[in-house]
Amino acid sequence: MSNIENQQGRLQAQDPELAGLLQREDRRQSSTLTLIASENHCSAAVREACSSRLTDKYAEGYPGRRYYGGCEVADAVEDLARQRALRLFAGAEEANVQPHSGTTANLSALLALAGPNGRIVGMMLKAGGHLSHGHDKSHTGIVFQARQYGAGPDGRIDLDEVRKLVREHQPKVLIAGGSSYCRNIDYAAFAAIAKEAGALLLADIAHPAGLMAAGVVPSPIGIADVVTMTTHKTLRGPRGGMILARKDVAKAIHSSVFPGSQGGPLVHTIAAKAVAFGEALLPGFRAYQQKVLDNARHLAACLMAHGLDIVTGGTDNHIVLVDLRKTDVTGAQVEERALAAGLSVNKNAIPGDPRPPMVTSGLRLGTPAVTTRGFGREQIETVAGVIVGLVRGAAPEKFRPVVSGLGEAFPLP
Ligand SMILES: Cc1ncc(COP(=O)(O)O)c(C=O)c1O
Fold first, then answer.
1. Which of 12, 23, 172, 268 has its CA 20 to 30 A from that of 248?
2. Pocket flag, ligand 1, residue 227 (CB < 6 Å)
3. What are the pLDDT digits (tens) for 135-178?
4. Phi then psi dihedrals of residue 61, to 5 deg
5. Structural domain of residue 311, as residue ranges?
6. Does residue 35 lie in a domain region?
C-alpha cells in the first residue's frame, strides 16, 4: 500500500466526510475528460511529495539563511528544486521556487522591477493576457500604473501597437505572455521594444512552460530579464509558481518574494516541484510535450474541418480557442452542455468579444491533461466530434457513454 493510500485510509477513519469529498473528486476527474488548458494530472509521486510532513515545517528565508532552526532538510529540498529548475530551463541564471502561485510570482516580480506606482505594460485579458498583467480588478492594476495592449483583428499580437504603447507610456516593465494566447510570441521583438524604452522584459510562461522546457516551442530564456510561470499547467507539477531571473535582478526578486510578498514557503510544494522537474528532465517528457502539441493542432484542424472558427486559424501550443460568434450559442452555454456530457472545458473571452466575461463568445480548450491520459489522434477526433455536436445543439446525454468509455480506457496517472 502506498504512502498516499495509507494516508487516505487514516483520513477515511478520522474524517469520513472530508474523505468522501476527496473520493468524489477522484471520481469526477476519472469520469470526465479535462480539456481545460490550464489543468493537468500530475503524477502520484508529485502528489505524495505534496502530502509529506514538510507541510509542518517553517522555513522563512532561503537555504543557508533561514529564520528558523531545523531547516537542513528544507534547505536540501529547496536547493534540489532550484538546481533541477536551472537544468530544465538551461540558460536561466537564478531560480526562485518559493512563489505560492503564478499571481504571487507576477506580483513579486513586478514589485521588484517596477516598484509601487511604477509603470507597466501587459496584454489585455480579452486579448489573451492574464489578470495579473495589470487588469484593473487585480492589485497589479491598482498598485502599478498599468496600460494594456490588445490583439489585432486576426487575434495575434500587433507588435506595432505594443511599440506605440511602450513609447507613449515609458514603462519600467513590459510583460509578454498570456492565458489564452495560442501563438508563439516573438520574444526577441518584445525585448527590442523594451530596450528602446529602457524597460525590462518579463515573460510569463505559465501556460507553455512545459512545452518550452521540452524545447518543442521557442522559449524566452536568455532573452527576457525575468521569466515567471506556474508549475501546474503543461509543466505537470504541483500547484505553484516559479521565477527565473538574470543575476543582476535576482537579488531584488528574491527579497520581493520573501519577505516582500510571502512568509514561510510551502516546503512540501517545493519538494513536489523538485519531483516534477526531475520528471521533466527524463527523456519521455519531450515526447509527451510533442504529443500535447500534435494533439492541439489536430483538435484545431478537426474543429475547423467541421466548420467551427478557431481564433488565429490554428495553434502553436496546447491551447485551442474556439470563436463561437458565427454559431447561435455562447461560451457559457457550451461550457454547461460540455459538463453535462462529461467534458471539463471553460468559456473564454475572445479578442473583440461583444459578450461579458461570464458569458463570452469563446471556448478555450487544451490538450495537456488528456495527453497525460494517453490520448492520440483517434481520441482527439472523437472529442472534436462531441464538441461540434454540443455546439450544434445535440443533447449532451447522448455523448455521456462515449466520454465515459474514453475515461475508463485512459485512466488517470
Ligand atoms: C499567464 C498566467 N499567468 C499567471 C497565472 C496565475 O496563476 P495562479 O492561478 O497560480 O495564480 C495564470 C493562471 O492561469 C496564467 O495563465
1. 268
2. no
3. 999 999 999 999 999 998 899 999 999 999 999 999 999 999 99
4. 110, -160
5. 284-409
6. no
**What does residue 394 show for φ and ψ, rounded to 5 degrees?**
-65, 155
Tell whether 187 is covered by a domain: yes
Does the active-site annotation cover 233? Answer: yes
Find the catalytic residue in 230, 360, 371, 372: 230
User: From the CB of 278, is ligand 1 less than 6 Å away?
Assistant: no
| 177 in contact with ligand 1, CB cutoff 6 A | yes
pLDDT bucket at 393, cuts 50 / 70 / 90: very high
Is the Cβ–Cβ distance between 365 and 344 less than 8 Å?
A: no
* Residue 160 annotated in active site: no
CA of 12 to the centre of ligand 1 (A): 33
CB burial string 55-91: b at 16+ within 10 A, e below: eebbbebbbeebeeeebeebbebbebbbebbbebbee
Neighbours of 340 (CB within 10 A): 13
How many domains, the chain? 2
Ligand 1 centre distance from Cα of residue 256 (Å): 18
CATH code: domain of residue 140: 3.40.640.10
Q: Which residue from 25, 24, 21, 35 is spatially nearest to 403, judged by alpha carbons?
A: 35
Q: Is 185 in the pocket of ligand 1 (CB under 6 A)?
A: no
Q: Catalytic residue, from 57, 233, 297, 373: name it.
A: 233
The model's pTM is 0.96
Residues 276 and 357 in one domain: no
Look at ligand 1, atom 8, and give the residue with the nearest C-alpha: 102
Asked whether residue 15 is assigned to any structural domain, the reply reads no
Ligand 1 pocket residue status of 178, Cβ below 6 Å:
yes
| Residue 210 contacts residue 229 (beta carbons within 8 Å) | no
249 in helix, strand or coil?
A: helix
Q: Give the HSE-up count for residue 14: Cα atoms under 13 Å, Cβ half-sphere.
A: 6
For the record, the C-alpha cell of 147 comes out as 496600460
Distance (Å, whole) CA 247 – CA 62: 16
Sign of CA dihedral 51, 53, 56, 58: negative
Residue 1: is its pLDDT beyond 50?
no
Domain C-terminal end among 229, 260, 280: 280
Question: With a 6 A CB cut-off, is 230 part of the ligand 1 pocket?
Answer: yes
Is 164 among the catalytic positions?
A: no
Ligand 1 pocket test, candidate residues 103, 175, 228, most atoms within 8 A of CB: 103
Output the CA 405–ligand 1 centroid distance in Å. 32
